[in-house]
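ligand=pyridoxal-5'-phosphate
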Amino acid sequence: MTVDRDILRSIPKIDELLKEPQLVKVAGRYGTAVVVACARMVVEEKRQQIVAGNHSDLVDKSQLVREIEARLQRETRMHLRPVINGTGIVLHTNLGRAVLCEAAAQAAYQAARNYSTLEYDVRTGERGSRYSHVDFLLEKICGCESAIVVNNNAAAVLLILSTLAKGKEVIVSRGELVEIGGSFRVPEVMQQSGATLVEVGSTNKTKPADYEKAICCENTGALLKVHTSNFKIMGFTQEVSLQELTEIGHKHDLPVLYDMGSGGFFKAEDYQLGDEPNVLESMKSGADIICFSGDKLLGGPQAGIILGRKKYIDEMKKNPLTRALRVDKMTLAALEATLRLYLDKDKAQKEIPVLALLSATQESLLEKAECFTALLGKNPLIASAVVEDFGQVGGGSMPNQMIPSVCVAVEVGGVSANALDRKLNEADIPIIGRIHKDRYLLDMRTIESRDFETIAMTLKNMTE
Ligand SMILES: *Cc1c(COP(=O)(O)O)cnc(C)c1O
């Protein structure tokens, strides 16, 4: 096969392409270097197509310019960018867990764009503490003596164990040696912290006497309870409640630690959360230290929140690990703004997206679905139907519990559900749905009405 020299020669020179008005315009926006790089990539691909015999026409300059523009758009768009979550999973770890409330997002923005009182005490004009912005709120809301916030809950568990039990034994039930996705395993975190794990009981049953037998006062550093947030053991089971564990710990003068995982502040029943423990009730049980994530049921930024006895928290503040695990100003600002909403239950419920999404009623979701199908119905090439289905809380909360939800099944003329799924994933604003029985579903619980237009546009673009 001979290469067609006329076709090869019809590729415009890069310099010539850069003079095209559209490319001059985009060079003003993105900088010449990126435009040149994209032009080179597109031209090189074209050359290879021609050499391989896959391009039998002369190269059309304006077509090439359009391809360069499209390439430029793909290359310059943010790699970390918003998606539309149509999975129905409210706390989707891969999609960034909790969406922040407006006040938190604004606070993070202000902290990012200005100097701030991060570690400055305006009353004394002296150095302040970065923890002072949220500890008083946590104390007020949760009724704890003291609080400290670190990078995430995994860091919180590490800091707690390293401070209170390094070189000592920590007793944990065999039924609670949890692995959370992303390689957080209780036994491994324990090892990192320098504490020694002492397992008691069996996978399905642990009794108070099992802890009592394992306690050896010189060597035992603490009793740890871990919420089995992402699995459930059913059938012939027994676990020691936090209250019972606290009684045992205090009898032997040992701190009782509780890794709650997801730390909701409100009663679980109000959010279809079954028996998910809540922070306020856990505090009341008398545990010395409890910790949980900022971006699970609390609905704030990624953080590990540690509450409890002042004497233990003060020790943690002195641990050099605290410096390595510290949270940044944007996180603190967002957390403070989120916590302030919790001072007023109604406000929290309305304004914190996680709570609003979880408490949305079936009727309101049906209404949303009908608005969405009506919008999609304007395009004759798109078919849609309202389907009642089930979603999940996610974020390692309520593993078995499927919460009733409403979906819209979408079909675009002749495209299979799998192909549709792939295409929507690759959109500028990716749309993440799920496939159930060969149907492509978008769950209305996690999609905001303001995103309907974007979805309709993306689907329309696919039909062209
Ligand atoms: C989620 C979870 C963690 C880890 O929390 P991150 O904030 O993701 O680090 C630890 N323990 C339990 C029980 C959890 O559910």
